[in-house]
Design brief:
The protein contains 14 helices and eleven strands. It is an alpha/beta fold and 321 residues long. The protein folds into two domains: 190 residues, P-loop containing nucleotide triphosphate hydrolases (Rossmann fold, 3-Layer(aba) Sandwich); 100 residues, Orthogonal Bundle (Helicase, Ruva Protein, domain 3). A hairpin with a 4-residue loop joins strand 3 and strand 4.
Length: 321
Amino acid sequence: MSEIRESILKISKEMNAAIIGQETVVERLIIALLANGNVLMEGLPGTAKTRSIKTLSTLIESKFSRVQFTPDLLPSDVTGSEIYREQTATFEFQPGPLFGNLILADEINRAPAKVQAALLEAMEERQVTVANKTHKLPDLFLVMATQNPIEQEGTYPLPEAQMDRFLVYVKVPYPKGENELSILRLVRSEITGADEKKPEPVSQETIFAARKEVDAIQVAEAAEKYLVDLVIASREPAQYGDELAKWIRIGASPRATIALDCASRARAWLRGSDFVTPEDIQAVAPACLSHRIHLTYEAEAAGKTSEDIVDAILERVAVAG
């Protein structure tokens, strides 16, 4: 095992120790980090959404920023603004919280559209323009936006087209009963200071080196065809049955194909393989596709979720030979 991969697996191990019972959430957050993407996380209160990104920030040499989204927030509160300095009679750019490495955009659906657009543009372009001047964001840059599925009154749902900018979507469930006692004891030990040993943070250079190794992972032509077939099935569902066709209103965009490729490479690298398998693609497909597939009213009335539709696509699309 290479030292680089060993360092990343240690991050994963430490996160699983701090966020008990959420192994899938941890894996998808690590995959987003390796694939240089952003994460949209949805879960009920108290499911360790904030804790996950804060824990990751302590395990990497990074600057952590948190933005609590509210209806009165302005775009400049996120990106920064020009400040006039009387001493020099000049304007000076004051960077906002977006100029960190790991950004928690807490309850992103509570901010108005202008603020959401400013954040999502920065995620895509990796830069911010203020007063006709462009300011580059850090090389290590990951946004984890959270949403609360309850209390939707007074919120501003993300436009469907903007959801596409997130590499992965993670739905955080409540932990299982057998993990609840472990969570209680962990939090108690943190309060009392019984366990204060902290691991040495991993350098940003290690993250960049890991990304280069992920980029070198091989994807065979059959695997490429399979992941493309999955995306095409969401756009042309009638080829896979009338039932699937009546459930899907809008299929996944080409960004979904790119996301599947990047995320499956990262997963293959994490498990120590130098090539992508269909199992890697199937494992990341729900996180990469579910927020990019939009359902019909008929599907919603039948109680179907986008995750159900992705599962149906995986069942119907054959692995390319």
